[in-house]
Amino acid sequence: EDSNKPSLTVYLLLALFLGGIGAHDFYVGKTGTGLIKLAFCWTGIPSIVALFNIIGALMHKENFK
Question: Which of 11, 18, 17, 20 is closest to 39 using CA atoms?
């Protein structure tokens, strides 16, 4: 079961450094969300959302391996 789960470390690093273009969303299979963040990356809003995604991931570690 854990083999299907994404790595928390990889997710957090992608969200931290490439969150503004939605890289962490593509990593976990949320292609639609990733494309929306990619389309609006010039606004800076996806970078702010990525910070909330980091907090959410840390609160729900059971979704990762």
Answer: 20
